[in-house]
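Entry type: protein chain
Record version: 2
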Amino acid sequence: MGMPDYHEATIAAIATPPGAGGIGIIRLSGRNSLAILRQLFQPKSSFPRFTSHKLYYGSLVNPRTGAVVDEVLGVYMRGPHTYTREDVVEIHCHGSYLVLEEILRLVLAFPGTRLADPGEFTKRAFLNGRIDLTQAEAVADLLAAKTKEGASLAVSQLKGGLHTEIERVRDFLLALRAIIEVAIDFPEEDVEILDGVALRQRLAGEALEPLRRLLARADEGRILREGVAVVILGRPNVGKSSLLNCLLREERAIVTEIPGTTRDTIEEYLDIGGIPIRLVDTAGIREAAEAVEEIGIRRARQKLEEAELVLLVLDASAGVQEADRNLFAVTAGKKIVMVVNKIDQAEDGILDDCERFFPGVPLAATSAKTGEGIAALEEVLKAVLIGEAAGLHEAGRPAPNARHVAALSRAVAALLRVEEGLAQALAPDLLAIDLQEALDHLGDIVGETTTDDVLDMIFAKFCIGK
């Protein structure tokens, strides 16, 4: 009997993150899972029959030497009532990575067993019909979520929210296709099969409008999934690093009175109103800088290019300088929040000057030294950022990702051609071509017509063991 096909092999992987921990888990999926557990597991009492979904206490032994590797809990889950719809085994051991590696090595020594590819457990769940492709992607989003709202968005999609909205449109389009096919099959009928006006109204209300609503939520979803890059910019020694430390509530950046202390960018994530903020502290930008500082300044300019929002910090004790106005000019085209720092040492009229030189720019007055105004700055950031993602704070509203947006846009374009064809009373076989194209693009989203290379790209983003 030959070795099983690559995709039919039993797969195994460590399912818990690297590093020491209280518990570590080895996961197996495939036809040999139970047989492997039986040969490695030594129960503390009589040998169990391994009732599905029940934990058993015992030892994990090396079948060749009989040496005990660790005390473990073993569980067998019989398919199809499992994550992958295949037989699944989990071995719960102590969280030593050495122990986990040794158990995995013993598991992989069995014929017909191999190390799982990244995301292969979830990929098998998709291929075996347990979840659709949008739900599979939601698993990755949930693992990567950096805020509660981002996790909530992923859970909504994992529960099938996006799938349901797409399928509702597809059901209508399938019904429309059936009408068009009747018109193709019976072209000589006296009764008008294609009522162009009525079908166009239904196409707009039951397909185009729902798809456009989904597209409108894409930017909101991107913000909650990926966060927003926010760069702290300013002259040297205006308090950028102190401001970073205040927002993070920790001493992340070195702070001194010497201008040019920050020589490189520092990046940390911050949760503001449920939006993950990638906060970047940069070297102070000035003309007279020595070589190492100049490298930091170049990187600061690069980060500015990537930023979606700029916190432009100036020193309230020094007033508005020409260099501050030059930096403001450099940030043209970016969203800006002006931070007037060192407000406890402020010159008279500094806030009036800011409103005069930087009209219409949201403003926050802070003292990174005393903490004054930091809460107000966070509120300003919420007002600037959450307005873009406010709609998704409502429960149960999934949003498309970049891949979905591309497919949705192509589907809408095809349906607009169908709408135009109905208006011009084109032959039904021509309408059918564009209608089928729209169906294919929607099928790409849920995974019914997705190509293998796209699937490989999606699941390659997963960690091994999920």
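Comment: The two ends are 30 Å apart (CA to CA).
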